[in-house]
Design a protein that fits this description.
By secondary structure, this protein is mainly beta. It has two domains: about 120 residues, no CATH class; about 130 residues, Lipopolysaccharide (LPS) transport protein A like domain (lipopolysaccharide transport protein A fold), CATH 2.60.450.10. It is built from one helix and 20 strands. The longest helix has 11 residues. The radius of gyration is 23 Å and the shape is elongated. It starts with a helix and ends in a 9-residue tail after the last strand.
Length: about 270
């Protein structure tokens, strides 16, 4: 069933409601239930498919709730009746050139799916990306934004970047908190599998890593290597200060020393 854009939008705003309190500074869309609407506009109108219980907005589609804005080529809002007999959105899909914008964060991707029951946003496509203050989180598979737990997960060649510093791994988990100004900021990044940290001077690799964004110190564990030019150190734990460029390497349990290979700069003459 197709209705006029104005009539559909009026019904949409009057009957389809989305949840509870929203952290305006984050990408939170609020979950299911509650009494606050999502406002939707689209250049090519909004289609109400009553049999499928979905609204489809096409052409520069825009959804707005509080200070969180979702932009894409197409939006699909799935609704249902709750136990009180009221309509509520339980899923929101954004398709094509997706941008999700809040005061302090912006996410980009080809597609985004928001599960209102779990309060989880999943973004995928060619290279999904999350920008939070000075920090950028990218991946090749998908990004997940968990509202309640307040962290983002990047899967597949995941990279966390701040200025000229990079933390890479198969999976990165960026933990967030609200700063004194009320903005959301990344304060810690956990790295899993094939961890690689790059600074101007060196590269550090390991199996696991924890990066304290505020102190600039990354701690690597597992089979750890520190590589600078042609020099290489090996151990089981390393502390890399991304701010000062100073690294410390520790031996494996039961071992008394670390191992290293050093190559002089004038090796061609010796």
């Amino acid at each position: 069933m197709t209705t006029s854009p104005w009539l559909t939008l009026h019904i949409f705003l009057s009957t389809i409601l989305v949840a509870g309190s929203v952290h305006a500074q984050s990408l939170s869309l609020g979950g299911a239930g509650g009494d606050k609407p999502i406002e939707v506009t689209a250049d090519n109108g909004i289609e109400w498919q009553q049999d499928k219980e979905v609204f489809v907005a096409r052409g520069n589609a825009r959804a707005l709730r509080g200070e969180v804005e979702v932009l894409s080529e197409e939006l699909r809002a799935y609704y249902r009746k709750n136990v009180q007999g009221q309509s509520e959105i339980w899923r929101l899909d954004a398709i094509g050139n997706v941008r999700i914008i809040s005061k302090s964060e912006t996410a980009y991707g080809d597609r985004a799916i928001y599960n209102a029951d779990q309060k989880v946003l999943v973004i995928d496509g060619e290279k999904p990306r999350l920008v939070s203050g000075e920090d950028t989180l990218t991946a090749t598979q998908q990004l997940e934004y968990w509202e309640v737990k307040r962290f983002a997960v990047a899967r597949g060649n995941a990279i966390a970047t701040r200025e000229d510093k990079q933390v890479r791994a198969d999976v990165l988990v960026a933990h967030m908190k609200t700063d004194a100004k009320g903005d959301t900021r990344v304060y810690r990044v956990d790295a899993y599998d094939n961890v690689r940290i790059r600074t101007k001077q060196e590269t550090a690799t390991g199996d696991r890593g924890v990066y304290n964004v505020e102190s600039g110190i990354a701690t690597l564990t597992g089979e750890v290597k520190l590589i600078r030019d042609d020099n290489e150190l090996r151990g089981c734990k390393a502390e890399v200060n991304l701010n000062s460029g100073i690294s410390r390497l520790f031996p494996c349990p039961g071992a008394s020393r670390v191992q290293g290979t050093f190559t002089p700069n004038n090796r061609s003459n010796n």
